[in-house]
Write a structure and sequence with these properties.
Blueprint lengths: L2 H7 L3 H36 L11 E6 L3 H12 L4 E5 L12 E2 L1 H8 L4 H8 L8 E5 L6 E6 L16 E2 L2 H17 L5 H7 L8 E3 L1 E9 L2 E8 L8 E10 L6 H6 L3 E16 L1 H10 L4 E5 L4 E8 L4 E7 L12 H12 L7 E15 L9 E3 L5 E2 L6 H21 L6 H28 L1 H5 L4 H11 L9 H16 L12 H15 L9 H5 L12 H4 L4 H4 L22 E7 L2 E3 L4 E2 L12 E7 L2 H16 L3 E8 L3 H8 L25 H12 L4 E6 L4 H5 L6 E4 L5 E5 L7 H12 L13
Parallel strand pairs: 1-2, 1-10, 2-7, 4-12, 10-16, 21-22, 22-23
Antiparallel strand pairs: 3-6, 4-5, 8-9, 9-10, 11-14, 11-15, 12-13, 13-14, 15-17, 18-19, 18-20, 18-23, 21-24, 24-25
Length: 765
Amino acid sequence: MGLRLQGLMFPWRLPCLRILQHLQLQRFVASESVARCSSKAMSMEAVQRRDPEEEEDEKLGVLIVGAGPVGLTLSILLSSYGVRSLVVERRSKLSDHPQAHFLNNRTMEIFRKMEGLSEEIETKQPPLEHWRRFVYCTTLAGRVLGTVDHLQPEDVPSGRSPTSVAHFSQHHLLPLLFERAQRLGRRLEPKASTVKIASSVLNAGPILMGHECTSIKSSSDGVLANIFPTQAGIGQGQKLACQYLVAADGAGSSVRELAGVQMEGDENLQKLISVHFMSKQLGQHLLDSVPGMLYFVFNQRVIAVIVAHNLEAGEFIAQIPFYPPQQQFEEFTEEVCKGIIYDAAGTRDIEIEVKTIKKWSMHAQVAASYFDKYGRIILVGDAAHRFPPAGGFGLNTGVQDAHNLAWKLAAVLKGHCPSALLLTYDTERRPVAIANTALSVANFKAAMAVPAALGLDPSAARLVHKVVNSGVGLLLPERFQVTLLDGLFAIGRAQVSPAFLSSLNPIGSARVLEVQRILREGQSLQLQFPAEDLGFRYLEGALVPEVEAQQQTNSHWNFPTGRRREYLPSTRPGARLPHFPIRMFCLNPPATSKEICSTLDLVSRGGNRMEFVLLVQSQRSGCCWGDAAITAGQAFGIWVKVVFIWPSGSYDGFLGKSHIHTESAELGNDQMSPDKDMFSNDNEATAVFEWSQRNKGCVLHAEEVGCGWRDIFGIPETGAILVRPDDHVAWRSKAEPKASSTQELYLAFSKVLKKPNIQVPRFMQ
């Protein structure tokens, strides 16, 4: 029988063992400190030999270029770990042009831990009934060809997540993120190297608006960035030394270009004009007739997609295909755009206010690497990947990039881990981006099924444009090229004229029936992808993969179809910890929380410590795994929180045994004393109770709400699951604990934290 089991059978031996192990651990840590001091002395010599021109004040930990949703999310997460960052944004104010608007479950879960951001979004977003549908029509005021409801009964509320998906526009999300980033960043003491820059802009705080990164010099020691005001005459440029620079500056990332990182994949799949306009009359009309999120408009004058960002407010975006060089962006004036919107609406009896007009290109690309050659410049969000908007993966994948990167940056900058840990960001997130690119392209192609059924083959339009811009077409006068292109497109749009789609026309009627079949069978553009949203799994990186799991692949990523797939919970290493409703309670004093929370709430962040969570069942084996994890974690400076999961009804059962009424047991009641007799008939519970008494500072108890956790747990009850700070499983064991369990956890931490050269202390062997 192993060391830990002996300690549990003979309680008087365990304190002695823990003291002995603590002394041995102190010697081990002390020896490591000596080695670090020696290394530091060598580093000081290297600093003294530096070129004086490169000498800077104390380096900033992280410089984030770009105050979009991804950059601001990263700033907030770093602040929660006690790591100060500076965000630099070239615009003088946040963008008010609507862009991304669909937030999936995983993104909302991340926002849920950012001071209740998900709840604020749910409160401020439009009502669900206003945006759950896609509408296919000839005009917004005319004939509806079909609709698709993208929220199934199991989606709202969702049993797979503590949050729901949301429809909340990026330009409304940004101020919420900005306020949190500013406030949390101000709590951290500023570094001297950023004070000089911040002083040029009043109350700049951790976010510096109206400044851009004009050049960068990267090396193995860090990054030297030149920061200049975007408007002449406002302050002077400064050199800023930082340990890491994160490029969150969007699809056209200048930092990516400066770093020399190439994009791989297809570019310029389509060019579009994006028109932001307001019309409360149009919004009210759609609320009264057919509310939806996206309106696909097909008629003889215009083909467009109208995005209803908020029907009550009358806020919309019109997406219009754009074919340069025959069509010039400057030609899309406010009056021209109003005319297009009137044609899409099917009426001119509405007031329209055009706010902004922009152009953009659709790509399907992923960066060849998420790092520069020195590993000091890191790409996130659209700077790292550019997707078609089909499925809304852009913003969501970017937020999840930041979530993956934040804890790793904090661990490295705080000295818990070597820089090798950061490289797992590329290892883990780049395959996800490649998979999401393929899925977005597949979904985009599926979206073309409806216009193709109506006789509007999008590939034909691209072919016409290509012909006009090559060979004989280029020999034609420019005005004739424009006339030819417009004429050919007009012939194509005649396929959706009222006369052609009339019920009296058998061809038109057959096409409409085909559209309705496509929509009914889910073969058109999809909104939700639960399997990819919550079920993506890292196959390698900061984790300990299982041998049998390595032999399997995520085939649904390799062969994307653009169709919805359901999420299957998993606790395999690399997977997101499954959500399951639980209720927290205490054993000493007996107390329970009436609030139902999620297993995801067990993983907390904040403060200066790096915390992992060990999930075990409420029995003797869980105590053994808890001892092993706590001891191994201490060797790496990692705090391990041990969580015992109890069957539903356990707490009330304890109270019944101790003759304490449930209504008198309120959380925080210090007057109640523990009653050991409550466990007298349960040796397993007694072991857990006594172990919890000895480890009060690092143990939690949670009771299942309902049944089913043991099925989701996915391993025998005597096993254990180790969860990373980003909610992903780092390691698990299906075996019972044994004498070598501490060594096993030590090796697991070594692999996860990328410290492979540290020998196992002798007392763990």
